[in-house]
Each structure stands twice: as structure tokens, then as C-alpha cells.
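Side project, low priority. Logging it here so it doesn't get lost.
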Amino acid sequence: MEKINTNYNFYKQEYSSLRRHGLLVGACLLCNFLLQNVFVLLLRLFGLVNAYYGNASFQYAVSAVFVTAGCLGVPFFIMSCRKGSLSYRRALPFNFPEDKSKAFYLICAGFAFCLAFNYLAVYFNAFLNGVGVGTVENEVVESVSIGDTFLNFLCAAVVAPLIEEFVFRGVIMQPLRRFGNVFAVVASALLFGLSHGGPSNIVFAFLCGVALGFVVIASKSIWVGIAVHFLNNFYAVASYELYNAFPSLGTLPQLIMSAVIFALGVGAVAALLIRRELRLPRVNTTLSNGKRIRAFFINIPMLLVLAYLVVSMLTYIE
């Protein structure tokens, strides 16, 4: 009888802890979206809308500082410093990976998978267009100077990976690991994907989120996830800037680089398979899959977040 009561108390404790984490994550995401809308309102009030959509450097810098670092990073940093919660210093494995060769293989494999997911998202978008579902792309100002290009690289390949990995693979995912590594990876990837706009972007970001979560847990270091995220965004920006600067080259440089990256990725996956290091460690929990989903996602802040994200996604569909 005493053992049954102990198990039940442990179950209640786990459920309550996961529910509290879901509430806090939902509240931070709501704060993020609220701050983003306040940011848009301020642009309109100060007459900066035309400058934002007409000046590449201004758009890149403002988006990185206010949208990514301010609106997204600050609420989750405050959450990580909350008294009684898992502090960001303990929640985030900021140490460098002990096994450097394994980390290298994971970076190569993760980058190759993210690139493959990008092509998959392109085909998915083509499929949507083929069945009559048009999508709207975000307005991006083309770089017209070296300064614009530098800021594009800095914001997309440095600021975004640092802040987004801190939030999604750190503050959100790490506390979820006590309820199962697979659950932690998929749940954080789902929120990461839904935060990226249109249908094809959501598919791409979700799959990348799964890969990023895997490499962070497998390497025991968030720096590996940041490295993969950096390489993916750097490659995307480089391809975009190269095509705009030398349109006569077409997509040939991109195809050559993609082939090299895929080759490295295949070799890395083969090495990890030989070393038997492609499995995440199992975690024992009293909560079933349904209970974990209910505890983390079924609360008012999180439901409001999911509703907001679904509505936002619909605005990208014509």
C-alpha cells in the first residue's frame, strides 16, 4: 500500500512539474508575440514602416535586436532566472562536448539533414501550389552594399542561432528531458516549427528542430546545436547573397555545395552507426504519452499560443 501511495505521489509530482513548465513556456511565448505586435505598432507610430521594408541594414539590425533578442530571448532569459526553476546555467549544457570526434560527426550529419529538409520543404511548397494552395512569402529587402550583406550574415547566422537554441533547445527542451528525451525533442521542435510562419517553413523548421534537439542531447552540449544552426543559416544566406550578386551563375554553386555537404553527412552518419551512437538515452517516467501531452500543452497560455500560431500560419495561405 505504501509503495502504491509513493508511486502515486511521484506521478502527481511529475505531472505538476510538467504542467508548470508548460504554463511558463506558454506565458513566455505569449509575451514574445505581444512584444512583436508592440514592435510593429511602434514602427507605425514613428513612421518607420517604409524604412523597415526599404532599408536592408535597418531591417536586419532591428529584427535581430528587437524581435529575436528582445521579444524572444528576454522573456525566456527571465524565466530561466526565476526563483525555484531550473536556472539557465544548470538547464543549458554550455560546456563544450567531451567527445570532439562525435561532435564533429553530429555537426556534419545535422547540417546535411537540415539541408535535406530544406529541399523537402521546397517540394512540399510546390505540392501545395499544385493542389491550389498558394502561399505568401515574407518581404525581405535585398542587400545593396557590403554592410547590408554583413548584417544579414550577422543577424541570421549568429544572433538567430544563439537566441533560438538558447530558447528552444535550452530553456524549453532541457527541463522536458526528465519526461523522456524523444518527448523533449519533439515537443520543443513542434513549438520551434510553428513559430516559423507559413506551412512549408513550419515543416522545415519542425524537422530541423528534431535534428537540432537530437544533436544537442547526443553531444551533451548546446554548442553543437548552435554550430548546426549556424551552418544552416550561413549556407542559406550565402546562397541567397551569391545568387543576387551573380545571377548568371544560376544555382550551380549551390548544387555543388549541396553535394559536398550531403557526402559529408552520409559519411558522418555511417561513422555514428559504426560507433553505435545514434540512440538517445532512455528516461524512466511515470507519465504516459497522453499524460505528457496533456500536462505540457493543455493549459490556457499554451492553447492561446497554439491558436495564435495556427491563425498566423493561415495568413500565409492565399
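Brief comment: The first helix runs from residue 2 to 45.
Revisit when time allows.
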